[in-house]
Design goal:
838 residues; alpha/beta; 8-stranded mixed sheet; 8-stranded parallel barrel; 44% helix
């Protein structure tokens, strides 16, 4: 395979790094990409330096060829001059390409990863803009450049027909995976979009595959001609079957809809139950603040671009705060909607378009930003996909946030003089996150769904919400009395006295239960017969630990450290990590802190590390401890930081995705090396620090007795363990119903792990989502778990559930649960065995 290198030359270092990161993600780091951008002048960092370009080329030089992509002006002159510094033998293998910087780089790396020669790579880069122009209708679809194929009329060409089910169709990353897979085979792969009735195009061309405009639900015809045709088609079929590794849960979310007004009760409206609780208060209408923008000429476009960058930086901090809050309440998977907003702010194509618009037109930052955001939103809407429509909401929300910051407006938080129920068409994440729960007692909107952003944040804030009610509520006068029940999804306008009495009683009971839970949250969780069970918190940032302690956490059972590694262009330093670990430990004030070493790779790739081909099933791939052992320097850096932070604190190390004794021993060897290095340097650490493992792979359960002899504690991760035991991807809606952690097969795995741990004299906890399900609490106690680790908001409820139980009755329930034949029957067993609190 050709080892062609790419060099990106730009006036802006930020732009070049963004392009490199985007391109690298397309091919999972298979292609070497160097950057030569900006100049060392803090006052005016935009520019190019021939020596820097020369050094970049020399650092990645390959006899197979080096392709140099550049933006306009001095970048071209610097690149030409840089080549003159190279030896003559090397000069002829360096090619300057006039292709567009962003699109050209993506097309070039995909072609290079597929093993194309330098001339083919250049051709792909040069044709990159045709893809965009064709999709926008600027030019007619180009004729297919497929070479004539000689077919054997006696032997039909193997072909398959596939329906595209992943949410965004063959967008950039899936298209890159498709092309990379097609290029691995000798056979010629041809593709046609039957839904759009396109021509056949080459499957190994990123530009041609993209011009097919493949979206969710489209049917493709794929043919293969050659000696390995069947194998090629099978490999491509596997990509589609796995949705290109993408999560399709959102596809099956119920669409937002309007409910008819039911006539059963006067003034009753039916809607979607989005956030539990009862609210009774006057209504207040809410409309988002309009930000008027005027376009005007500017003399200093770079100053305007700097304003955009500053606003984006502030917007990123604001969104990260919302992201952290949502993670605590609903878990990382659902909170990823806010991660998508962060990615939008980092999109180099968007940033480049805004920058170029300011430079070319000499217009103000507000006008340029609004124009590019409107373009993106319009392009999403044109695809008419339910998932993409939801992303339009994100685009508009992020765009408005940056626009507000550019305009110098304060955050548009709603300030109410008196408590009220908020009535609106819809609420953006930004709108909802700024609400004061002491004044906004309820939310009633005419659109949205239980999985909409407004619903998610309403649950986070504890505000009852009913969404998707009839539009007549928009015509109610401010001050009209309303009652709503977020559990049943009903609202009442000017409710009658009998309805008010029922809702007031329900509200009182709910508030009493909440107060009781909060009152006992800081007390130990002790069963009726005297067994104490530790209740810890799962956290994913420094901010989370404050909430955890306030919620009654007795320690941290899982500190996910991935946040330190993701969304950046290089690995965190030892000092950066040390400060974070020390900050968390300080807040915990000598409570236990279990730090899980970074669980990246697979479905969470690091763009700044070179990895192999995209994995067909990343959950079965290169992640967790496997990734750490293959990157010992990264691993050592983290271990050093954890060890240094351990002085004076109760810190433990936990290793993820352990599948064998060999992995544990290898990790302990590296830990020993780090300890020896620190000793030699005279750096203090807790020499008695405990080391544990995540039990989340079935093989770890099978050899739990052997693993228990190697470590100090176990923590069972039921989220991954469930899908591995049931052979069902929990993100695949077709089989997600099988992935229920209360299935007897999974409960038996938990039992086997606990028994092995206790026989060896070590403790065992559980940090999966099952731990927060109070329905499961009696079974978990009955199976003998020593510790439950949950999201901070669940701590009061879990402690309350433990206090209502005895170990004797819990063991009886657990024993019976293990004999059931389905998760449904286990749930029925629990519901009939435990009397719910009044």
């Amino acid at each position: 395979m050709a080892a062609i290198a790419i060099v990106i030359v730009s006036h802006s270092k930020q732009l070049a790094l963004g392009v490199r990161e985007l391109a690298a993600q397309m091919v999972q780091g298979q292609v070497t990409i160097a950057v030569a951008a900006g100049i060392e002048d803090p006052e005016n960092p935009l520019g190019t330096d021939p020596i820097q370009v020369y050094e970049a080329i020399a650092s990645v030089f390959s006899d197979d060829g080096v392709l140099v992509l550049m933006d306009l002006g001095s970048a071209l002159l610097s690149a030409e001059m840089a080549i003159e510094f190279l030896p003559e033998a090397q000069q002829e293998k360096v090619y300057l390409c006039e292709a567009p910087l962003v699109e050209g780089a993506i097309a070039a790396v995909v072609a290079a990863a597929a093993g194309r020669d330098i001339h083919q790579v250049m051709a792909e880069a040069r044709g990159a803009l045709l893809t965009k122009a064709t999709q926008l209708g600027v030019v007619s679809r180009p004729l297919s450049v497929v070479s004539p194929i000689t077919t054997n009329t006696e032997s039909p060409t193997p072909e398959i027909r596939l329906i595209v089910s992943n949410r965004l169709g063959l967008h950039a990353r899936p298209a890159a995976q498709f092309v990379a897979t097609a290029a691995r085979f000798q056979s010629q792969i041809l593709v046609r979009n039957l839904t759009r009735n396109t021509e056949l195009v080459r499957g190994d061309s990123i530009n041609q595959v993209t011009t097919l405009g493949v979206r969710q639900g489209h049917e493709l015809l794929i043919t293969a001609t050659g000696s390995d045709a069947d194998e090629a088609l099978a490999a491509l079929q596997a990509l589609f079957a796995n949705n290109f590794g993408e999560d399709n849960v959102a596809l099956n979310s119920p669409p937002a809809f309007h409910h008819e007004v039911r006539a059963t009760t006067h003034g009753e409206l039916s809607g979607i139950a989005a956030s539990g609780g009862v609210a009774i208060a006057p209504v207040v209408h809410y409309q988002p603040t309009h930000i008027p923008i005027t376009e005007y000429h500017v003399n200093d476009p770079e100053a305007e671009w700097q304003r955009v960058q500053t606003a984006i930086h502030t917007a990123r901090q604001e969104i990260q705060a919302v992201f952290s809050q949502a993670s605590l309440q609903i878990g990382d998977a659902e909170a990823a909607i806010f991660d998508a907003q962060l990615l939008f702010l980092e999109d180099p194509v968007l940033l480049s378009a805004a920058h170029q618009r300011i430079l070319d037109n000499h217009i103000n930052a507000e006008a340029a930003w609004r124009a590019v955001v409107d373009e993106v939103a319009t392009s999403y809407r044109a695809l008419e996909d339910s998932y993409l429509q939801e992303r339009v909401d994100d685009v508009v929300d992020v765009g408005q946030r940056v626009l507000r910051l550019l305009a110098g407006n304060a955050a548009a938080n709603l300030h109410l003089e008196e408590p009220a129920i908020l009535v609106a068409t819809d609420l953006t994440p930004s709108d909802t996150a700024g609400l004061d729960p002491t004044k906004v007692l309820g939310i009633c909107t005419t659109s949205g769904s239980a999985t909409s952003h407004s619903a998610i944040i309403a649950r986070t804030l504890g505000i009852p919400a009913v969404l998707g009610v009839d539009a007549q509520v928009l015509h109610l006068a401010d001050g009209t009395l309303m009652a709503l029940d977020g559990e049943s999804g009903k609202a009442w306008v000017e409710p009658e006295s009998d309805i008010l009495d029922l809702l007031t009683a329900k509200q009182s009971a709910w508030q009493t239960a909440q107060q009781e839970a909060r009152a006992t949250a800081h007390q130990p969780a002790i069963t009726r017969d005297g067994r104490q069970v530790s209740v810890f918190a799962n956290i994913g940032s420094v901010n989370d630990v404050q909430v955890a302690v306030a919620s009654g956490a007795e320690g941290v059972g899982l500190l996910r450290t991935e946040f330190l590694y993701l969304d950046r262009t290089s690995a965190p330093t030892e000092e950066e990590q040390l400060l974070v670990y020390q900050a968390v430990a300080q807040v915990l004030d000598n409570r236990p802190l279990i730090i899980r070493t970074f669980d990246v790779g697979g479905d969470k790739p690091l763009p700044y590390l070179k990895v192999g081909f995209p994995e067909a099933n990343p959950f079965l791939g290169w992640r967790g401890i496997r990734f750490c052992l293959d990157h010992p320097e990264l691993f050592k850096t983290q271990l050093r930081a954890i060890l240094r932070a351990s002085v004076g604190h109760q810190i433990k190390i936990m290793l993820p995705m352990i599948a064998s004794v060999t992995e544990v021993r290898a990790a302990k060897v590296i830990l020993g090396e780090v300890q020896a290095e620190l000793n030699q340097a005279g750096i203090s650490f807790d020499a008695a620090m405990k080391v544990g493992i995540m039990v989340e792979v079935p093989s770890a359960v099978a050899i739990a007795d052997r693993l228990a002899a190697e470590v100090d504690f176990f923590s069972i991760g039921t989220n991954d363990l469930s899908q591995y035991v049931m052979a069902s991807d929990r993100t695949n809606p077709s089989v997600a119903n099988l992935v229920d952690a209360l299935h007897p097969a999974i409960l038996r795995m938990v039992q086997q792990t606990v028994q092995a741990a206790h026989t060896a004299g070590i403790s065992v906890g559980l940090c999966g989502e099952l731990a927060a399900d109070t329905l499961a609490t009696p079974i978990l106690l009955g199976l003998g778990l020593d510790e439950l680790s949950v999201n901070p908001q669940s701590i009061p409820g879990v402690k309350q559930a433990i206090a209502r139980l005895s170990i004797v009755e819990s063991e009886a329930i657990a024993a019976s649960a293990l004999q059931q034949d389905s998760a449904l029957h286990v749930r029925e067993l629990i519901s009939t065995s435990i009397t719910p609190p009044a």
